[in-house]
Design goal:
The protein has helices at residues 25-38, 74-84, 132-141, 163-167, 173-190; strands at residues 5-10, 45-47, 50-57, 60-67, 90-91, 95-96, 106-116, 120-124, 147-154. It is an alpha/beta fold and 192 residues long. Helix 1 packs across helix 5 (173-190) and helix 2 packs parallel to helix 3 (132-141). The mean pLDDT is 88.
Length: 192
C-alpha cells in the first residue's frame, strides 16, 4: 500500500501544566511516533489550531496531529485538517456525508480509564464511551467510523477521585515507564 494519506491524531491538552497528565497520553504517543519516524530534529508546525507534522513513511504520507483546542474541542481542529486534505466526502459538493467510513484515513489516540495502564485496544466504529475529546470528533465529522487507539491509564490507584480530576493528574514516574514500555508496540500497530 503506497501513496496513501493518513491522519494520526493524539488527543490531549495544550500547555506545560498538562504535559505529563493521563489525559495527554495521546500527545505522548504522537511525540514518540514523531521521534521514531522523524529523527532528532523533528518539528511540528502550528496550523488549523493544532500542531502538525507531515512525514513520508515508505511512500505513505502521515499527518501527525496534536490539537491545541483543549480536549473537549478536539473535533474542531480535526475537522479543519480533514477538510484541508479533502478527506471528507461531500454530497453535491455542499453537504458533508454522514456516517462516512474514515477508518483508513483517521486514527485517534487517546487515554481510557476503563483499561489498566500498560494495556491498549485498537477499534473502529465505536461510540465515544464517555470520552469528551472523541465525542467532539464524532460531532464535527458526523461519523464514529474511524480507528481509535484506546490507551489504558487506570493504575488502580484512583483513590475515589472523580474521573475528570484523575485524568488531569500527572502520571507517576512508574506509570510513565509502563506507558513508554508499550509505546513501541502501539507504534508498530499504527504504522504497519
Amino acid at each position: 500500500m503506497s501513496n496513501n494519506l493518513q491522519l494520526i491524531v493524539g488527543l490531549g491538552n495544550p500547555g506545560k501544566q498538562y504535559e505529563q497528565t493521563r489525559h495527554n497520553a495521546g500527545f505522548l504517543v504522537i511525540d514518540k511516533l514523531a521521534e521514531t519516524l522523524g529523527a532528532s530534529d523533528f518539528k511540528f508546525n502550528k496550523k488549523f489550531n493544532a500542531e502538525i507534522a507531515e512525514i513520508n513513511n515508505n511512500g505513505d504520507k502521515l499527518i501527525l496531529v496534536k490539537p491545541q483546542t483543549f480536549m473537549n474541542n478536539s473535533g474542531q481542529a480535526v475537522r479543519a485538517i480533514m477538510d484541508y486534505y479533502k478527506l471528507l466526502p461531500k454530497t453535491l459538493k455542499i453537504i458533508k456525508q454522514k456516517n462516512t467510513d474514515l477508518s483508513d484515513q483517521l486514527i485517534v489516540i487517546h487515554d481510557d480509564v476503563d483499561f489498566e495502564l500498560s494495556n491498549y485496544k485498537i477499534q473502529t466504529n465505536r461510540s465515544a464511551g464517555g470520552h469528551n475529546g472523541v465525542q467532539s470528533i464524532i460531532d464535527y465529522l458526523k461519523t464514529q467510523n474511524f480507528t481509535r487507539v484506546r490507551i489504558g491509564v487506570n493504575s488502580g490507584v484512583k483513590n475515589n477521585l472523580p474521573t475528570d480530576k484523575f485524568v488531569l493528574g500527572n502520571f507517576s514516574a512508574v506509570e510513565i515507564k509502563k506507558l513508554e514500555k508499550i509505546m513501541p508496540e502501539i507504534i508498530s500497530e499504527i504504522i504497519k
